[in-house]
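Issue 218. Parser rejects a valid record. Input:
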Amino acid sequence: MKKKRAARRPSRKKNLGKFKSGIEKYCNDQLKQAGLDFEYEGKEFLLMDKFRYPNRYLKMTAKRKQLSDRSNSVQLPIRYTPDFVSKDGKWIIETKGYLHSHHDFPMRWKLFLKHLVDNNIDCAVYIAKNKSQIDQVISDIKETVYAQSE
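Output the parser choked on:
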């Protein structure tokens, strides 16, 4: 006798507008409520320029059994666009929910931090994954980042 599967609950459609997740929308709303001037995905950072790999390079592909010859190919640049950047350049917030185990974000984030250091970009950076952490970030920005400039 087969077990009956529980009926799947229909996914709740959220009215997120331009945002990719509920945590991004919450962060946006809280930043506005706090009176902080910011842009959503308004600044892109070039972490590594494109380059040509001049040597032999064979790579696997998803659709072919044979390796693909990519010798002497141009490798694309690595860019990073944070979720929220203050218009005065004093802080950056990245919101992150669940990350898959093979996600490239941790490496991209380290490259981004290195980019900030190498280019003497002095700003506070935050990664928040839930509403409580967003509230903590906003409080820290108001109490620490802008308290220093007063």
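Fixed in the parser; the record now loads. The helical segments are 22-33, 105-118, 131-148.
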